[in-house]
């Protein structure tokens, strides 16, 4: 029998109107999609602001736009709220180096993130 300890099931709650409010007393998570052109170092440049502002990226997934190699879209999750100065600055830099940036959601971080 396989050991499934540590696996977590995630659920997505969607709404027509975006809710980027801060909820709960613990940390927040922010999810977003962005697109970079297919040029050398595009992803490196786009993500540099997260490193220089000390923002932890917990998920990064890539998708070809329209099934072609001309552009790549990414889904990402980071620790923090868009109004937090470090994440605000990182998203500003990402927007500068991206063709598209769209916040998908803001949600309280799981309790497991705060257990050490």
Describe this protein's structure.
The chain is of the alpha+beta class and 116 residues long. It has one domain: ACT domain (Alpha-Beta Plaits). The protein is built from two helices and four strands. The chain has helices spanning 42-52, 85-97, and strands at 28-37, 57-64, 71-79, 100-108. Strands 2-3-1-4 form a four-stranded antiparallel beta sheet, covered by helices on one side. It is globular and about 40 Å long. The chain starts with 27 loop residues before the first strand and ends in an 8-residue tail after the last strand.
The CATH class turns out to be: Alpha Beta
What integer is the average pLDDT?
84
Low-confidence stretches: none
**Cα shape:** globular
Q: Which class of secondary structure composition applies to the elements?
A: alpha+beta
CATH superfamily: ACT domain
% residues in beta strands = 25-35%
**Mind telling me which CATH architecture this is?**
2-Layer Sandwich
Count up the domains.
Answer: 1
Please name the CATH topology: Alpha-Beta Plaits
Q: How many strands, what sense, and barrel or not for the largest sheet?
A: 4 strands, antiparallel
Strand order of the largest sheet: 2-3-1-4
Count of DSSP strands: 4
Protein name: Prephenate dehydratase
InterPro entries: ACT-like_dom_sf, ACT_dom
Keywords: Lyase
Domain ACT: 31-106
Write the layout of secondary structure elements.
Layout: E1 28-37, H1 42-52, E2 57-64, E3 71-79, H2 85-97, E4 100-108
Antiparallel strand pairs: 1-3, 1-4, 2-3
Organism: Rubellimicrobium mesophilum DSM 19309
Domain ACT: 31-106
InterPro entries: ACT-like_dom_sf (IPR045865), ACT_dom (IPR002912)
